[in-house]
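Ticket reopened. Same input as before:
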Amino acid sequence: MPIKSYLAYPARGRRDELVAALGRLDGCDVVPAVNRDLVVLVTDTPHEAADRALQEALTGLPALDGLALVAGIGDAEVDAVGAEEGGRDPA
Amino acid sequence: MTRRELLKSMAATAAIGAAQGMFPGVRFADAAKAAGEAAPAEGGVAWKKTPCRFCGVGCGLQVGIANGRAVAVKGDPASPVNRGLCCVKGYHSVMALYGTDRLTRAMVRKDGKLQPVPMKEALDLVAAKMAETIKAHGKDAVAIYGSGQWTIPDGYVASKLMKGAIGTNNLEANARLCMASAVTGFMTSFGLDEPMGCYDDIDHADVFVLWGNNMAEMHPVLFSRLLERRLQNPDVKIIDLATRWTRTSMAADRSILFLPQTDLAIANAICHEIIRSDAVHETFVRDHVSFHEGKTNIGYGLEDKFTFKDEPKTITFERYRELLADYAVEKVEPLSGVPARELRYLASLYADPKKKVMSLWCMGFNQHTRGTWINNLIYNIHLLVGKIATPGNSPFSLTGQPSACGTVREVGTLTHRLPHGDVTDEKSRKMAAEIWGVPLERIAPKPTFHTVEMFRALDRGDIRFVWIQVTNPMLTLPKLRRYRDGLRKDDRFVVVSDVYPTPTTDVADVILPAAMWIEREGMWGNSERRTQHFERMLTPPGEAMSDGWQMIEVARRLGFEKLFPWTEASHVEEIWKEYRRFQAGPEHEMAPYEELLRRPGVMWPFVNGKETKWRYNGQYDPAAKGAFDFYGKPDHRAWIWFRPYEPPPEVPDAQYPFWLNTGRVLEHWHSGSMTRRIPVLHRAVPAAYVELHPADARRLGIVDGGRVRLTSRRGSLILPAQIDGRARPPEGQVFVPFFDESLLINELTLDAFCPISGQPDYKKCAVRVERA
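Engineering reply: fixed in the latest deploy. New output:
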């Protein structure tokens, strides 16, 4: 059940086309920037295989010039919000 | 909102935050929606206002609470500070409440090991040890060390306990490490602390000069307001004056790099050039300014029990002009590395009568062995051209903690301060004695130790007991090894109140679990004199208790019940009402409690229902008489000080040929004890690193990510190299962020400090750099 967020860079002059194409894909939420050719993409897929399939679909979009992963939240973290990584035992 | 929706909103806000870091000024129309504004009503989400947990900007947040848990965050559109925007730390702030290793039980060291005990037993032990230490060694053998993250009521309780009940001035706070030079700068130039202007200045200024201040990372929401101002007004200029190229430099219209410590000479060169070009605002200077000089060659505080007392002398404008003769732009060019034409350009921006200028600074100025002086010098520039205390004309000192101003500076949790005035001032002691209901002679008239000297006193044994709250000095003190070894000595007793295990809890004899942020009620005061209230929204985990209530419990055990008569449910309101009495009057009137509940923060002075946006300006400030009135000084004038350039105590040489600069990164807040427990932020910057210039790296055979050994006269550390990452230091300089407890860069730094403020300089010492 991975949740990921990306910065998506449209090909020159194809921002609106990219936003529309992303909006048609299952599991994609799109937040376009209003003053720059840049789109925040949040994906939510039911399992790893679906995530891989979605990534293949994304990389095949002609209006997409580049995709940068920002945050990736795996199954374990979805099940346990706030699971820390730098924690330790005070004793 | 479900857990899954919360995570999606956080993933979105992480991406938005990353975009804002990479492309300053980028805006997302649906950002609030992405952050959870359109929360479904599953289980019901209640939105409550609070200032952000982290920096001193004081962004207003709305926190979504569902089923007893904080599930979402959005910027508060009603907050005039951030107008609905947050940075990446703010958007993820509530996740810091839920790290799996939250301290929920008290612990006491027994046979060398920390063992869990009931909170009551731990508080009994703290009180008993405090009393025992006072009996054996005197009241000045106990100390409390807090922070600018204390709420205002917490700080007030600390002050009343130490100064009013016990009768010692052994009270300090970590704001000494970040804001003390700003305070002494304000006090020496204006006689009163804190800025005359406010964030609204950003909406009026034509030029922003950032002095040693990487705002894009350290104050990202305010920086976005600068960028917005420029987007709407293309003639607006942002000038980045710094010792290292950063994201702020990238976004600026002009980046000017200078050599460490030479900001003193640069500021004087600007003043020299303003005078040389007849750009002085003669009537403003004649009517509202006086000129002064003080001692020079004032030392660096490297030796224990260092003392300094300035001897101000009033001088004429002509004498001031003569003293500036050494700072002609051509003379300052070789010292500072800044070309004379750039210095003239800077002077021309300040001098142009058609331009409103805002100067902004933070740690670059304050963590400086001449921190008070450089604060004075920036005011000199603004005063010479009369660009001060009017909308858009604003020398503005930024802060790093949510209540460095509200708690440490205003309540006065420093050795020399009381909630109103200094301990050395009998009138202020009388006021405190009357409000607190204690004998006047109980309040000690002499300051004891500022922070560095306090930890030196702990090392020597002059202080035997210390209670540390809401801060992590075993990561943040300079020349750290000495002070850690001091706390570990057998006959020292160390109490630490915190929310997570840290290097400071590692040296504790007692750990008290603290309620964090919105798990208790409180107020914080931000950089623009804005006090913001937050209610208790959540139940603290386990036996965690607010820092203030912990101190009240101990005070009662020490026999001071009458001084702390409040109930736990109402003590914040009652304390606020008592504290307001100290600040009564048009110069510092605080808003009533009910007003704080109602508004997203209130700026003081709050007089007749109205905030004061520009102090000392008769048009806005009810305490000012006439057009301008610098009423903090007896002569009702702002003071221009001649302050020379003096070199730092340690400079690169053949053995240690590099400058070491330390600081912060966008993703982590200070010592990282909270932000490193937020997975998105931790993964973004999981460990400290050393930034090098690519030419230095090539010469030393160091590649990006390769291991580098840094060595100073105080210690050595191996870190991964970062070459042309988010910033680039000039050749001969390296930069290391300090957030990482596994890579303690402060074992290398120097504990030299500004003799006037006592604030250490974390920005300059000499190191050797080698491939490891």
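The longest strand of chain B covers residues 716-723. The radius of gyration of chain B is 25 Å. Please confirm and we'll close it.
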